[in-house]
Design goal:
The structure holds two protein chains of two kinds. By secondary structure, chain A is mostly helical. Chain A is built from 14 helices and no strands. Chain A starts with 18 loop residues before the first helix and ends with a helix. Chain B is an alpha+beta fold. Classes of the chains: A mainly alpha, B alpha+beta.
Chain lengths: 406, 178
Amino acid sequence: MGTHNHTHNFTERFDFSGKPKTWSLIAIVIGVLAIAYGFLTHHTERTFANLLLMGYYFACVCAAGAFFLAIQYVAQAGWATGLLRIPQAMARVLPVASIILIIICASGLATHELYHHWHADGITDPNSPNYDAIIAGKSGYLNVPFFMIRLVGFLALYSFFAVTLAKLSVNEDLEGGLSSYKKSFKYSVFFLVIFGFTTPLWAFDTIMSLEAHWFSTMFGWYNFAAMWVSGLCVITIIAILLKRSGYMSWINENHLHDLGKFIFAFSIFWTYVWFAQFLLIYYANMPEETVYFYKRWEPEYKPWFWLNLIINFVSPVLILMTRDAKRRETTLLFVAILLLCGHWLDYYIMIMPGTVGAERTFGIVEIGTALGFAGLFSLLTLNALSKHSLIPVKHPFLEESLHHHI
Amino acid sequence: MSNTKYILGHFEDPDDMMHGIEQLQKNNISIYDVFTPMPIHGIEEKLGVKRSRLPIVAFLFGITGTCFAFGLMYYCLVYDWPMNIGGKPAFAMPDFIPIMFELTVLFASYGMCFTFFFRNHLFPGRAPRVMDLRATDDRFIIAINAKHNPYPEKIDNLLKEAGAVEIKHNERKYVSYE
């Protein structure tokens, strides 16, 4: 207490080689093979749906890293300083994730495999047999050029802020002083405002427009909650695994406790938003709104619909309820991995009924694509992590984080 | 036999006080309580203070709220006076959930609050009891029950060695408002 003596090695760097690298590369190879298998066996739409799922998930997790950074700066929080390099590494990967997502969406539009509910020849032409009055009414917003402008614009903005925040932290290591911190604060404020207003639109475009007849204003926040929980889970998993391999000696059960509280709280928030969307649609009972849940209530989706709630709400609430569970590495690691799988299922239930519909399957393409993107994420993130020391040594709140105690 | 009930060691520095606690514990002297004007991290573990049982209270009040909300709505909407609302069945579970949730939060928060006040004797008409007035101002105070610990001179010496600036032998437990 009150002493500044510690035995941590602040100059150490993560050595990205050996097993983590090998397994990441193997996962990427599996992913490429699974995607190739999907295309070669003429499961084109299914493969595209899976690519969209994982591409979106990947970009969301990286964006959540940038969001985590921005929140810490704006709240002037000190507890997380010791683990800030992890979300910084995630934020550095966001540009790559954005490019992949843009390529997937663009090629999906070009081949008419994705978004064909609103992107088809003559769909806005009253004289065409394809004419759809509802889509024609939405076409002022929902048309291909504007769709691509929004997608590229949002992701470019997020990537700019993500990379800038990560760079400022490295400058701080070199120069010291408060100037980098003050700049980070300013950038974070702008980022949070932009991010807060544009993520719902991002979710509307990328996911909700798969079923373009249907709409829900809660959908954006619902996606945001899923993004934030999965981002927190990834940060927790990386922190625990780094600690287990002997790095980050300054992270202790107090920091994990805070991450656990975050995961617990935002799992409940996810359920809150999920239920808010469900209750209003159930209560109003209007056909154009209930169609969404009607599809997910069909026999091929119903068990998954319930499993989604059990994994993403019941299990974190019951497992992470006590203080001890949040402080125990093993429990937290288990819940974080479970929730990552759970939010994959969440996205699966959002995307699949609007794409493959009743021909829903779960097999090589699903598992392979998920593994491939997980491998790509760990390769890029751990590589970014290994470039700098594992702690921002000149961060003004460093001591607070080292002595964090709850 | 002196009439001293409590020995109070006053410290000006929290680190000295923590040192004093260590010295007393080394000499097997039981500490009645410690009063500080600000929270000090790690003091609970050092004194062996058990974790608060308030979360259990919160859970019990919360579950009471859930049951109360469910019972109330079930009685009104299903048993006593079923109504046709939007063509839904009388027992429409999703409609119940928001109210069950809100009353759970309401009961848990009020229940916790009142239990906390009750346990800490913070209710109207109750004069606050303080062992030393300066504990709420600028002094860090260790209180030792003199009836349970013999050799008051030894306690005095230990406190002095640890850096106590003042030592009081009080014949009454509380000084204020009684």
